[in-house]
């Protein structure tokens, strides 16, 4: 398989761009551009980002027509040290032997680590953002489930939660005693993956290796394992009513992962992309949810236990030295530091003034609402437009997570000023801001349109700049957001202002659900969402004239696979060039007097095998119409492939050639520059998928494999050779005598009977 790294043919690019844009019905960008905003629609759309970022088999045919199965190689990650090829695991041979029985119970030599979500605009499955995202989505659902029900998105959310949590279950390897021996927290390698700006469906495992990173006793990653434990504990709570067996599996695994995380302490690897600060927050996040799920006090003890002199020995010791001390959280619930979520759930359990203070102070810090101590003026900076910015790289995600915390606070202790603040910030995100831009993609017609996201952008040239406009709308994605001056840059290349990521949308979904509950009652989601994208030419041929005179016609055909619903490779493409040789026949020549010359076969260079020329075959022999078939079968193609060839008549006995291209069907409309050529039809495995064949098609006569108008022993010999795979140059339709779609010995037997007159 091959993707060309750069597109060299300007004209071809322009042609394709003209065909492919614009793709969308604008009616779905129905969201308001000024307040009051429709939170039902904003929440509805926000979920679709997770459909866009699903990884693995089982995607094709889902909610987004432009997403298909990807990275299916994750189902079989080889059980071997990854080595310098980055294929396999982060474990040594000795470690693999130690854990072999647990890692590979079916003994097929590999691990199944499919599923989960692509991290952002890239396709690595990074551990901390993955578990943060799935746990925080579950948290939002746990707190505001009715909102999802009321906008008819409960089933959708359940699908997303299962997709994520099932991946965490699959990534957990336990022994017979139910003890975790290994937990896979990362599949893929940032420094490899990030070189390939292409849709995930086009990932070629030989080029973009996806090693797997496992936590074990020897290689602890308690931040990663605890994050997953938290998510699975929440998932238990979300599913225990409707699916108790599944929920029990989640809880059992959550407990085991937590034990594993507590026993083997340390932080995991990310290749520098998501450096982990420490693990006590994820351990607390898991512990607090396990307490809610089981009622067992020991989990809370693990967080808040103290020594005889009141010094914290539990996880809180990371941030607070003793029970005499308080803490002010100047960060937020985020992929690296989940203390925001921890105190939101811990304060109602411990119910100490100190823990409520920590929970509340953080929301006051974010919102600018006066702290209880009137002398405390420690607040987060605001943009001139009123948006609170913690960090300019993805500012909106932190803000949305802070909104979620404020909305959850209000569930315990009604604080309308907190929820009003959250709504105010959400309104800024949805378009009420100095840029007059919505930071939710696809929400309204003022939404950001160029998120840094490979699948939605759909480049065929491995370039963020090609095409200029995204092929698909990344419905509901929260882009990075504004900087401290309310400025935002809506450019595909800009991953600071305009990246999207699973952790960005996690707090956003929960916050929208909370805001819908308080401010969106009566609002309606969109019907029939998402809209079908407009059809575009996925397969076609272009051609240009290279040279033509009385002795030849020389052209280049460029065959295209521009598939996008979803994008995929094709390895059985064919094209047919039809022509009329009546001028040769009138001069006493036949099809035997025509030669095919090949000047350039791009596929041979890019894909290895190259084009097989078949024929010429008679199409309408009475009128002298023939065709040659250019067969790319065996070359896995995405994008386009050029084939430069010539039809060259031989000279007759008088040293004359007889060549008149003006009556040649496929020659019509071909000029010096590339243009799309309806008369050079394109086929997939023999079935026409583009263009038109000459009128007056004469059905190929069954048995006349070489198209010479006779059914005779030559055809029999050809068919026998074809079945023995000695020859492939036959008319398949004619060879399929019993018309069952296969050419095999049954056809040979039938042809024999025909020849024997039986
Ligand atoms: Ca296996
Ligand atoms: Ca952490
Ligand atoms: Ca002709
Ligand atoms: Ca024949
Ligand atoms: Zn994938």
UniProtKB/TrEMBL annotation:
Q: Name one GO molecular function term.
A: hydrolase activity, hydrolyzing O-glycosyl compounds
Tell me which Gene Ontology terms the entry assigns under biological process: polysaccharide catabolic process
Highest taxon above the source species: Bacteria
Stretch forming the signal peptide: 1-30
Q: Which residues form the CBM3 domain?
A: 534-695
Residue ranges of the Dockerin domain? 698-758
- Entries under InterPro entries matching the protein: 6-hairpin_glycosidase_sf, 6hp_glycosidase-like_sf, CBM2/CBM3_carb-bd_dom_sf, CBM3, CBM3_sf, Dockerin_1_rpt, Dockerin_dom, Dockerin_dom_sf
Keyword list (alphabetical) reads: Carbohydrate metabolism, Glycosidase, Hydrolase, Polysaccharide degradation, Signal
Q: Which residues form a coiled coil?
A: none
Q: What is this protein called?
A: Dockerin type I repeat protein
Q: Which organism is it from?
A: Anaerobacterium chartisolvens
